[in-house]
Amino acid sequence: MVGRLVLVLGDQLTETLSALAQADKARDTVVMAEVADEAAYVRHHPKKIALIFAAMRKFAHALEQDGWTVAYTQLDDTDNAGSIVGELLRRAAQTGASEVLATEPGEWRLIGKLKYAPLKVHLLADDRFLATHAEFEAWAEGRKALRMEYFYREMRRKTGLLMEGDQPAGGKWNFDHDNRKAAPEDVTVDGPLRFDPDATTREVLELVQARFGDNFGALEPFWFATTRAEALQALDHFIAHALPRFGDYQDAMLNENEFLYHAILSPYLNIGLLNVTEICEAAADAYAAGHAPINAAEGFIRQIIGWREYVRGIYFLEGPDYTARNILGHDRDLPWFYWGGETRMNCVAKAVGQTRTQAYAHHIQRLMVTGNFALLAGIDPAQVHEWYLAVYADAFEWVEAPNTIGMSQFADGGVIASKPYVSSGAYINRMSDHCKSCHYSVSAKTGDTACPFNLLYWHFLDRHRDRFSNNPRMGNMYRTWDRMDADKRKTVLAEGDALLARLDAGEVI
């Protein structure tokens, strides 16, 4: 009896993957392939490509050690078909298989390709998530607003994480109010656990340098975990050393510290080396043992079973056209400084510089620095989306697009966010030490040294007044603007216009 093909993608490196669980080890063939279509549909950060390829090769080897037949294609193999469907067709011709078991990809683009492939592809649910599509749709049905907080409570009840009977541990569902402390004077942990590349990873690094060395981003030093065993070590390191202070400083930013108390586990979780349950249970156990305070454990768990699960639900609920949404009509091109060009804005330079060297920036750097500037300046959200998808090691469309199109750029018109996440330079100054060494003055509202975030904040509110002035969460902002002296408002708008004109002309901002 002819066996089937079992497709395992680069972000599905999980031994309990549904496609593997339903396959027959004795007769089916696992297909894994490094293909140009997936590596180059956006200009991915070289570190991201290297992480996925190295982890794929090691996962394939582990499957073989476990008795699976694995047909693995490296990027530079001469007979590489260049696409996932092409590789399936090539392996089908070799084996005689006519059916494929595949776990649903996390991107509409690839789902469509598999659905219309000239093979019988059985798309199985990705059961590595807590909420199925049907469960999220049932939760969303009939609601006027799909707010994460209420979905998160359902996930807490479902999992029992940080629950005391039917009540939340600590008496509250959400301790976010305690997690907004300004940057600490010193950081007592030396960042995430780092791993030296072995021979397999070194081969991948050489390949990626040769093929993708011109992409934005530094390939080396490369220190990511590339096996499940290493990822588990990284998890243990975070729980032991960083979790206790994670909550307090999760929104903080420092010039000279790229990681603070952040976990840097999302790349491993999103490619399948770690699973949701073990990560969250480790944090909950740390709280129960008195090792970490409730605000740290709850804040960390909320990012995973709350926000991560929620944005996946939104991505699949809203459909394939979600990434094309642009409710605000923004059409300005993404400035060159997002790709490493010069900027005098220290906060942006730090966030982009860190992105270039580490393929990582934490949620506030993404939302309130690079995302905030793009929204204030009216950048085309499709270009912003492509940038985030390309430059971060943990970025896959199911998780990145809702965060960018919805939360960051408000391009979905409020499906995710109840208001646009915009701020002046005051917020960045409160949460970081960036402003102290910036070319601009965060306290200057107008003039040559005025912080661009200050000018563009009011410019954004003014040009979108018809849409947002009646938003109850934005009323105070408009009342403050209206109380401002008329001549000052005129100056702010004129200087905002001039700044945007300089941006369009390619001048250094």
Overview of this protein structure:
It is a single chain. 49% of the residues lie in helices and 5% in strands. By secondary structure, it is mainly alpha-helical. The protein has 22 helices and seven strands. It has helices at residues 18-21, 36-40, 46-65, 84-95, 108-115, 133-140, 148-159, 199-212, 228-241, 243-246, 266-271, 276-288, 294-318, 346-358, 363-377, 381-391, 397-408, 425-431, 452-463, 465-468, 475-483, 486-504; strands spanning 5-7, 29-33, 69-73, 99-103, 120-124, 163-164, 167-168.
C-alpha Rg (nearest Å): 24 Å
The order of strands across the largest sheet is 3-2-1-4-5
Q: Profile the largest sheet.
A: 5 strands, parallel
Low-confidence stretches: none
Would you kindly provide a brief summary of this structure?
The chain has 509 residues and is mainly α. 49% of the residues lie in helices and 5% in strands. The model has no long low-confidence stretch (mean pLDDT 97).
List keywords for this structure.
22 helices; five-stranded parallel β-sheet; mainly alpha; 7 strands; two-stranded antiparallel sheet; single chain; 509 residues
Please give the structural blueprint.
Elements: E1 5-7, H1 18-21, E2 29-33, H2 36-40, H3 46-65, E3 69-73, H4 84-95, E4 99-103, H5 108-115, E5 120-124, H6 133-140, H7 148-159, E6 163-164, E7 167-168, H8 199-212, H9 228-241, H10 243-246, H11 266-271, H12 276-288, H13 294-318, H14 346-358, H15 363-377, H16 381-391, H17 397-408, H18 425-431, H19 452-463, H20 465-468, H21 475-483, H22 486-504
Parallel strand pairs: 1-2, 1-4, 2-3, 4-5
Antiparallel strand pairs: 6-7
Helix pairs in contact: 3-8, 7-13, 9-12, 12-13, 13-17, 14-15, 15-17, 15-19, 16-17, 19-22
